[in-house]
Amino acid sequence: MRYLFLCVAMCFALSAYAQEASVQEAADSTKRDSVAVKERPAPIKPVRTLGEVAVIDTLPTASELISIVLFNDNTWRYVISEDYKNDTEVFSDHWDTDATHAYKDVELSSFPDATPIRLVDSLEGYHYPYIGRITSRYGPRRGRSHQGIDIALKMGDPIYATFDGRVRFSKAAGNYGNLIVIRHNNGLETYYAHLSQRDVEAGDWVVAGQQIGLGGSTGRSTGPHLHYEVRYRGQSFDPERIVDFKTGELRREELLLKRTHFSIYSKFEQDFDDEVEVAKQEEAERKAAAAVQYHTIRSGDTLGALARKYGTTVTRLCQLNGIKSTSILRIGQRLRVR
Ligand SMILES: [Zn+2]
Q: pTM, whole model, 2 decimals?
């Protein structure tokens, strides 16, 4: 009986050990997975959707500049006070509620090589403007520059503010149709065009995810779509650098905005390595071009003498100029020697 008990106890211990080992194994494989995942940071989910959510209270914090806003779905977030925002230069410098573009006098050449832009932090929310099929990307289009992105929509679908900010422009504006421009705390401006309805006016403060209007087809438009632009100090760049319009997710928390990104040919798909590679190649081509040298044939010049003079060979001279070593040189002829 005692043996039987011992045996049962041992079996139990063994199976417990085996179980523990498999748990350990599982933990190891999870660890491996998480290491693999870490190499590629996950995209950022929309912080909140305000569709059915309403503000129920605002609470002060130790800082006068920051309050806590409570929502009726038991969530909350920090909000920077509007007085503080009023004091920052972002909402006063080049603030024009009548012009679609407020930074006309700002030259691209005055920009630094790269500007870091914080897209979200604990105080700043994010929400996609609209999720849908992209019908036209950022870039050259039929001889013109398409400075934004077109997303097909159903007439009357709600359009949302991308980040917190203040409405700088809300009017009908020629080709843009009904246009809303929001300036954000980080200095970016987002443009929402062809709207069928505008729900906010210039000067209104908005939060990320707030409905600002309805999608439409006003202005120069062949069908209902959202034309969406992102600009920094008046210069547009590919909105897909920020937003994944398929999933609605924010691509990154911080954006390093390079001056080269403002080129109409600059697409988000080119990652950094690519750009470094292109820059290197361009530098090599520039050096090669700079190294090219010509000699104008004078009386008495021979291929052998030129090869000695420029430290090269007759064969190389013939290659560079597509001639034979027996070719007759004419006075005044330009030969490439390097
Ligand atoms: Zn467009």
A: 0.61
